[in-house]
Amino acid sequence: MKKLEVKGIFFDFDDTLQSRKGAYRLYCEAFLEKYFPLVKGEKRQRMLDEMEEYVDGGYKDREVYFPQLIELWNWQDHPPMQELYDSFNYDFGKYIVMLPGAVDVLKELKKRGYIIGAITNGVSSLQNIKLDTAGIRELFDVVVVSGDIGIYKPDRRIFDEAIRRAGLKNEETLFVGDHPVNDIEGALSAGMQVIRMNYGDFKGKGLGKKGVFAEIEDIREILDYV
Question: What's the pTM value of the predicted model, to 2 decimals?
Answer without folding.
Answer: 0.94
